[in-house]
Amino acid sequence: MRPDKARFRLMKHIDLPFVLKNENAAYSHPWTQGNFRTSLNGTDYCCLVLVDERPVGHGVLSTGAGEAHVLNLCVHPEQQGAGLGRELLNHLLARAAACKVRSVFLEVRASNAAAITLYDSTGFNEIGRRRNYYPIAVGREDAIVMAKELF
User: Choosing from 45, 87, 107, 134, which is the catalytic residue?
Assistant: First the structure.
């Protein structure tokens, strides 16, 4: 599916069955329903990306104190490679800019080469690592901490 047909809308509690199914398809250690409920009930910006009115991804952005944090960015594996992750990331960055934040941060699994390439290509830079941050099948793996200045 082409990303130029993508549109975004706010995530609602009623969307959680899709969101959880999407998370489980995309990640070995997905967010839980509780994680999403916390974001939906708080001040986080939670959105869906839709193609032909069908949800194919979601994102969560936290803002405050002049900065933003991409907490979750997910495109269903069957839809990956069509540019939807880039569209979703750009949507979250536009939201961050509208909130007048200066810096946007995120963590990414050190093994997630596709995501790292996406973040690099949109102006994020590695600023550190969180050792043993993410669980894996056996043990843990590092998170790369990345940042982008908006202004």
Answer: 107
Marked catalytic residue, from 45, 119, 134, 149: 119
- List the 103-109 sheet strands across, edge first: 6-10, 45-51, 54-64, 67-75, 103-109, 140-149, 125-135
149 classed as catalytic: no
What are the pLDDT tens digits along the chain (151 aa)? 454 578 999 999 999 999 999 999 999 999 999 999 999 999 999 999 999 888 999 999 999 999 999 999 999 999 999 999 999 999 999 999 999 999 999 999 999 999 999 999 999 999 999 999 999 889 999 999 999 999 8
pTM of the model: 0.94
Q: Which amino acid is at 139?
A: G
* CATH class of the domain whose range is 3-149: alpha beta
Which structure tokens are listed for 66? 């002049």
Domain boundaries, the chain: 3-149
